[in-house]
Write a structure and sequence with these properties.
about 290 residues; alpha/beta; Rossmann fold; 7-stranded parallel sheet; 7 strands; binds hexanoyl-coenzyme A; binds NADP nicotinamide-adenine-dinucleotide phosphate
């Protein structure tokens, strides 16, 4: 199936060292696997070293190449700086940072404790900012080019109830992306973002559709193309955006959601529930001849 096929030519990321936060699971892992297949070396980081070690073994066995697992909580600046030192020490230079780590859960906002709200803000906005600042300062000091790719969501610009800390934090990450795309272009540092719609992962599904919610709110039903995303589709877009083929793309957020957020936005988009017979009746009632 073409949806599960790699798109870039073999070797498209050869010579690139790519750091992925949250790279041990879900979409981070899928994007990392494809980068590896295209010839990159990758560093995967997150809090759980056991998960990272297992993923690194699995990836290298499947794709070859080099995968370096480094434990790092992006909320802790000392850990971020130590992780960056370790990664650059092992590989010499990191060319791309993929800010993918996130935390999220659904809840009515008034039920959230201050700590719950801050936990998501800290992982998503503070964590992304800390990794970005650490990498960017080092690239600038060493006069090295760099690429940031930040994973946001489509509700970064619409907002969304029940995931308010995540929406606020992702909006901040989008602003960070666009701001630095302009400010740091003079240092040969590009910044772009991807806004995915629903892509099934254990992490997202267990927190956003817990229990029976997954049956009640089938995410595919909200998507005009009628399905959820395939991980390889996202990996193809990410590989393009971190590659030199996208050198002229800077400050962009690319949506990959089958048209989902626009469906929610358009005033009359929900009229697709109207059956053909009812359209026939309406036509007939205004006197149109068959
Ligand atoms: C309300 C909750 C909660 C929940 C935790 N808290 N879960 N409040 N509803 N479901 C509260 C806790 O009670 C605590 O507050 C505070 O949040 C911190 O909780 P901890 O468990 O101590 O935090 P921590 O161990 O740091 O874990 C962080 C986490 C967790 C965000 C809570 O879910 C996590 O590790 N997530 C990482 C992976 C993830 O979320 N992936 C999904 C990304 S999907 P108190 O006051 O009690 O101390 C995504 C997709 C969006 O972003 C778009 C989809 C289409
Ligand atoms: P996931 O597997 O849960 O990925 C989240 C990753 O972040 C995990 O590997 C987790 O690893 C890491 N992480 C969490 N807190 C961290 C911290 N404090 N420090 C460092 N790493 C941390 O979920 P996913 O669905 O693949 O999500 C990946 C990205 O896609 C996220 O940015 C998410 O917002 C975005 N997204 C997903 C969807 C979707 O439908 N799946 C849609 C839109 C956007 P540890 O637990 O080991 O730390």
């Amino acid at each position: 199936m073409i949806l599960a096929e790699g798109m870039l030519k073999p070797g498209a990321l050869k010579g690139k060292n790519i750091l992925i936060t949250g790279g041990g699971t879900g979409l981070g892992k899928s994007m990392g696997e494809y980068f590896l297949e295209l010839g990159a070396n990758i560093v995967i980081t997150s809090r759980k070293l056991d998960v990272l070690l297992a993923t690194a073994e699995e990836m290298m066995a499947a794709k070859g190449g080099k995968v370096i697992p480094i434990a790092c909580d992006v909320r802790e600046i000392e850990q971020v700086e130590a992780m960056w030192k370790e990664a650059t020490g092992q590989l010499g230079q990191i060319h791309v940072v993929l800010n993918n780590a996130a935390g999220n859960f659904i809840s009515p906002t008034e039920r959230l404790s201050t700590n719950a709200f801050n936990t998501v803000l800290d992982i998503v906005l503070k964590g992304t900012s800390q990794v970005t600042l650490t990498a960017g300062k080092d690239w600038i000091a060493k006069k090295q080019a760099g690429v940031f790719l930040n994973i946001v969501t489509t509700y970064a610009w619409t907002g969304s109830g029940y995931v308010v800390p995540s929406a606020a934090a992702k909006a901040g990450v989008l602003a960070l992306t666009r701001s630095l795309a302009v400010e740091w272009a003079k240092y040969d540092i590009r910044s772009n973002a991807i806004a995915p719609g629903p892509f099934p992962t254990e992490g997202a599904w267990s927190r956003l559709l817990p229990g029976d919610l997954v049956k009640k709110f089938d995410p595919a039903k909200k998507v005009p193309v009628g399905r959820v995303g395939e991980h390889q589709e996202l990996a193809n877009l990410a590989a393009y955006l971190v590659s030199d083929y996208s050198s002229y793309v800077n400050g962009e957020v690319m949506t990959i959601d089958g048209g989902e957020w626009l469906k929610g936005a358009g005033e009359f988009n929900n009229l697709d529930v109207i059956p053909e017979e009812m359209w026939d009746m309406m036509e007939a009632s205004r006197g149109k001849k068959a």
